[in-house]
């Protein structure tokens, strides 16, 4: 299984997941010019925020492909992007569905929008975990991470850098709140508690440009992986 993060930040998010001749796009917050040479069988949407769906309408003008989302997300994205309800294939969270070579299932995550999700994608005997825009490192999310051979996990901010960023207090509170974004420490704690022996590659995702530093996020996660005896896990910053 191959994962290609095309973009992963507050300005845009899009990830291509490939296996056994199939490819899906997880989120579409990216300009079409970056997608025009990439063939995908479907788009899976995590939630309706613009940095995850801003490129969807243009993509669908050029491609006749299905867009998968739960009902509340589909309704919100249709409104956000000016799309018809018929553009979406809707599922219930936890329900497995087939997309090309993949068996997919969505799981709930805490974030400040309508019914946001992460995904588990299975193909060729491997499992991919996709978890970004997570306000609280819930055990239920960790148990999904435990199934992963390859994982994308949010490591959005450093708490000190966030507090001293000069951002408005309401925005700091939102980001650090229970329906905001995972800090580096929270991402490390999920990996510390739930990474299984099968995990081979980990992408750190959705790093804040203003409130994080790639070197800090990578150092903390490498230290965490070493603590649990998993220094062999390939670590990369997404996007």
Give the secondary structure arrangement, pairings included.
Layout: E1 2-9, E2 12-19, E3 22-26, E4 42-44, H1 50-53, H2 56-62, E5 67-70, H3 71-81, E6 88-91, E7 97-99, E8 102-108, E9 117-123, E10 126-131, H4 139-145, E11 150-154, H5 159-163, H6 169-176, H7 184-194, E12 201-205, H8 214-227, E13 234-237
Parallel strand pairs: 3-4, 4-5, 5-6, 10-11, 11-12, 12-13
Antiparallel strand pairs: 1-2, 2-3, 7-8, 8-9, 9-10
Overview of this protein structure:
It contains eight helices and 13 strands. It has 239 residues and is an alpha/beta fold. It has one domain: Ribonuclease Z/Hydroxyacylglutathione hydrolase-like (Metallo-beta-lactamase, Chain A, 4-Layer Sandwich). The strands form two sheets. A seven-stranded mixed sheet has the order 7-8-9-10-11-12-13, covered by helices on one side. It has a six-stranded mixed sheet with strand order 1-2-3-4-5-6. The mean pLDDT is 97.
């Amino acid at each position: 299984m191959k994962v290609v993060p095309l973009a992963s930040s507050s300005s845009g998010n899009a990830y291509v997941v490939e296996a056994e001749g199939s490819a899906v796009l997880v989120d579409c917050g990216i300009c079409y010019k970056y997608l025009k040479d990439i063939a995908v069988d479907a788009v899976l949407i995590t939630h309706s925020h613009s940095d995850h769906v801003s490129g969807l309408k243009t993509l669908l003008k050029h491609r006749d492909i299905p867009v998968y989302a739960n009902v509340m997300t589909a309704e919100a994205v249709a409104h956000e992007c000016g799309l018809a309800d018929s553009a979406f294939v809707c599922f219930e969270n936890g329900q497995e569905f087939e997309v090309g070579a993949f068996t997919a299932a969505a799981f709930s995550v805490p974030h400040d929008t309508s019914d946001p999700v992460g995904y588990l994608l299975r193909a060729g005997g491997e499992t991919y975990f996709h978890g970004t825009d997570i306000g609280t490192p819930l055990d239920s999310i960790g148990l999904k991470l435990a199934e992963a051979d390859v994982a994308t996990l949010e490591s959005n901010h450093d708490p000190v850098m966030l507090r001293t960023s000069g951002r408005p207090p309401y925005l700091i509170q939102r980001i650090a709140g229970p329906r905001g974004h995972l800090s580096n420490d929270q991402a490390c704690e999920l990996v510390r508690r739930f990474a299984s022996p099968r995990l081979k590659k980990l992408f750190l995702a959705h790093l804040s440009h203003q409130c994080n530093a790639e070197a800090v996020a990578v150092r903390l996660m490498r230290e965490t992986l070493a603590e649990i005896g998993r220094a062999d896990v390939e670590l990369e910053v997404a996007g």
